[in-house]
Amino acid sequence: MRSILCCVVLAVIVAVAGCRTTTLRNVQDTPFAAVAVEPAKPLSLQDYEAAIIRAGAQRGWTFERAGTGHLVGSVNVRGKHSAQVDVLFNTETFSIVYKDSRNLNYKAETGEIHPNYNHWVSNLEDDIQREITVMKAS
After folding, report:
1. Using one digit for the tens of pLDDT, what is the confidence trace for 54-97?
2. Which contacts qualify for 134-137: CB closer than 8 Å, 24 or more apart?
3. Are 104 and 119 in contact (CB under 8 A)?
4. Which helix or strand (DSSP H or E) is residue 57 part of?
5. What are phi and psi of 98, to 5 degrees?
6. How is the chain split into domains, by residue range?
7. Counting beta carbons within 10 angstroms of the beta carbon of residue 98, is it exposed (0 to 12), middle (13 to 18) or buried (19 or more)?
8. Distance of alpha carbon 95 from its chain centroid, rounded?
9. Does the domain at residues 22-137 carry the CATH identifier 3.30.310.80?
10. Beta bridge partners of 22
11. Tens digit of pLDDT for each residue in 37-49?
């Protein structure tokens, strides 16, 4: 009897841990990192777009152009979890905004999602900053 109870408690703990959520994080109007030396030539909006695409590709993000200064990014993890974001940008700032997801426990009414989503977005934000810094320094 005791072993059955332990198995039930363990199953409940595993189920609850698998369903954890946190507040969804969007990146809003974040300035691109400054560099000590300005680029030899002004960078175009297309340069920024290409840098964002390169940055995301490092972690499996793919992008489709949705308009001037607007990319739709998608990531698929292990064929089971996926997320879509709008990446809005100009030559000064960028935003990463939730668009859609699959199997990430998104709850629109509370703005909650699986913590992995926020981790993916944070990594994308950091990778974009790094790629822009490299581009500006070249």
Report:
1. 999 999 999 999 999 999 999 999 999 999 999 999 999 999 99
2. 134/51, 135/39, 135/43, 135/47, 135/51, 136/32, 136/35, 136/38, 136/39, 136/43, 137/35, 137/37, 137/39
3. no
4. helix 45-57
5. -55, 135
6. 22-137
7. buried
8. 10
9. yes
10. 113
11. 777 778 999 999 9
